[in-house]
Design a protein that fits this description.
alpha/beta, TIM Barrel, 9-stranded parallel β-sheet, two-stranded antiparallel sheet, 13 helices, about 15% strand, globular, binds flavin mononucleotide, oxidoreductase, monooxygenase, Flavin-dependent oxidoreductase, Luciferase-like_sf, Luciferase-like_dom
């Protein structure tokens, strides 16, 4: 199993932005020293919720200070980016990191971010599906051209010329059924967040695997789970930090994406989020949803984390992890401590595991 870190760039520490940005990015450097396989970063704009406007740029800095760790924006949000520039920047960073780059793509869900890019949430499905093909073809062929509804690009050769790109190096966020279908259709590894009870996600995951196999004649690769981690030896500290920082993170997510607001109800491709809002209401409000959310993520002592992983694997089959250790304003000393503890006590067991064919 491959295990990575996922940097969320959430500044709830009250630190000056430059200092917070440097300290968050430094975690990617520490991750290589601790033996993680991946350093992944979000793309988010304009708020404390998350502020990393260009993960490909930030990963260039990491590339210069590392040798082996794989790099992955998780994810470049396609409705907010020009596909031609994404291909160029991806080829540039891939040259600088000598082929250690994987491209994570997503379509976004926060209308406050869409607004500033003059994009509408309602169009994100179409824009993503069109842009992702332009980008992947551009990386595979070294030529970008498009004459679609959203992008018209004359035939253009990319310099530096991209090398060694296949769909195996592209991954796609797929939390919604429509995205799971596109990921399977395009032959892409899927990225998911932990969201409460995994049994509820199984129909979608099975559909993704069946469609992938039917379309590409081979089993789908293990999907990647982005987990929010709380990992300490003391159970008391786990509870204290979960109640303080994980709870803060949960409220930030619900607020940033406005999960409880009505606007998702008129957006069919975001039905998953409309349902989440209603379900939370119906099942006793945010507190119940919060408990489910805690249950779905890997939180506990190293021993408890590994037990939770085995239970999850028995349900969902093979998967990989990119772990979020820095969130909710947790001091960087504690972030470093839990990252190191996880790397020393849990990661070796995860990496030693033989794959179970799902
Ligand atoms: C692993 C993972 C990484 C994500 N990274 C980002 C990100 O960097 N920026 C962002 O706006 N949304 C991010 N999202 C949220 C997606 O944009 C959101 O889930 C959106 O609805 C896309 O998923 P969907 O197409 O499956 O609905 C991420 C989601 C997952 C599961």
């Amino acid at each position: 199993m491959q295990v990575g870190v996922h940097l969320g760039y959430q500044n709830l520490h009250g630190l000056p932005d430059y200092e917070f940005f440097r300290r968050e990015t430094q975690l990617a450097i520490e991750a290589e020293a601790m033996g993680f396989d991946f350093a992944a970063m979000v793309e988010h704009h304009f708020t404390d919720y998350a502020a990393c406007p260009d993960p490909l740029q930030a990963l260039s800095w990491v590339a210069a200070k590392t040798k082996t760790i794989k790099l992955m924006p998780a994810a470049v949000i396609l409705p907010w980016n020009d596909p031609l520039r994404v291909v160029e920047k991806t080829a540039m960073l891939d040259a600088l990191c000598e082929g250690r780059l994987y491209l994570g793509m997503g379509r976004g869900a926060a209308r406050r971010e869409f607004k500033s890019f003059n994009r509408d949430l309602a169009d994100s499905r179409e824009i993503f599906d069109e842009s992702a093909l332009i980008i992947m073809n551009g990386l595979e062929t070294g030529v970008v051209e498009a004459d679609g509804k959203w992008f018209q690009i004359p035939r253009t050769e990319i310099r530096p010329r991209p090398e060694g790109w296949t769909r195996d190096r592209c991954v796609m966020v797929s939390m919604s059924p429509s995205s799971a279908e596109v990921a399977a259709d395009y032959g892409l590894k899927a990225l998911r967040f932990s969201q409460g009870d995994w049994s509820k996600a199984m129909p979608e995951i099975n559909n993704y695997r069946e469609t992938f196999k039917a379309k590409h004649g081979k089993a789908a690769p293990p999907f990647i789970i982005s987990d929010f981690m709380v990992c300490f030896d003391s159970k008391e500290k786990v509870t204290e930090y979960t109640d303080k920082y994980f709870a803060a993170q949960f409220l930030q997510v619900a607020n940033h994406y406005e999960f409880m607001s009505d606007h998702f109800k008129s957006l069919p491709s975001y039905a998953t989020y409309a349902y989440m809002g209603q379900a939370a209401e119906a099942r006793g409000g945010p507190d119940k949803a919060y408990k489910d959310y805690v249950g779905g993520n890997l939180i506990g002592t190293p021993e408890e984390l590994y037990e939770k992983h085995l239970m999850r694997k028995s349900m969902v089959g093979d998967y990989e992890i990119i772990a979020n250790f820095s969130f909710g304003g947790m001091p960087y000393e504690d972030v470093y401590e839990q990252m190191k503890l996880f790397a020393d006590k849990v990661m070796p067991k995860l990496k030693a595991e033989e794959p179970v064919l799902a």
